[in-house]
Amino acid sequence: MEEKSLLKANTRNTNGFTLIEALIFLFIFILAVTTFYQAVDMIVLSIIDSRNRTLATALANEKIETIRNLEYNKIGTIDRSEVEGELPYEENIMRSGRNFTVITYIGYVRDEFDGIDESSHPADERPFDYKKATIKVEWERGNPVKAVTLVSTFVPPGIEDVYEGGILSINVLDNTGK
């Protein structure tokens, strides 16, 4: 009789899970849930970043359009810029619940391709050929600051010329091509 009870004690019940099987299942389940959560988190952050980039680009484009509507001699910033004018150098703008910092830098550009430089005779009376506007819109996303930058050039009315009296140029050739 003792032999029968020992044999019954050694037989396995295959109706349930063992502790090892339950732990392996729990590990795989936690791994799958964590991976899914991280993927959703990354997608949401990417969407938010894309939205902020779109808003920043729209702000920079608005600023460029504001500059395009100014007269050439008024294009410049109030302080901290090479060219003085009517625009603020730095301003904070709130759009869709997000704070953006808009930095405007205006500088003169000396173009070497106009054929008139310091070595020409007569010397270049207008060394600054046009203005270059750089608009940088920044926003914070955690520790790194994200930014969008737009650059545009603005030229004065007319053409650069060392002579007074107009911009008409005539080239006459005879029948021999001279």
Protein model, in words:
- The chain is an alpha+beta fold and 178 residues long.
- It has one domain (24-154).
- Helices cover 33% and strands 22% of the residues.
- The chain has 2 helices and 4 strands.
- A 4-stranded antiparallel sheet has the order 1-2-3-4, with helices on one face.
- Strand 1 and strand 2 (98-109) form a beta hairpin.
- The longest helix has 50 residues, at 19-68.
- The protein is elongated.
- The N and C termini lie far apart (132 Å).
- Mean pLDDT is 81; it is low at 162-166.
Record field, number of beta strands: 4
The level of helicity is 25-40%
- Average pLDDT across residues? 81
Q: How many domain units?
A: 1
Overall shape: elongated
TL;DR of this structure?
The chain is of the alpha+beta class.
Task: Provide the fold topology.
Layout: H1 2-10, H2 19-68, E1 90-95, E2 98-109, E3 130-140, E4 145-154
Antiparallel strand pairs: 1-2, 2-3, 3-4
List keywords for this structure.
178 residues; alpha+beta; four-stranded antiparallel beta sheet; 2 helices; 22% strand; elongated
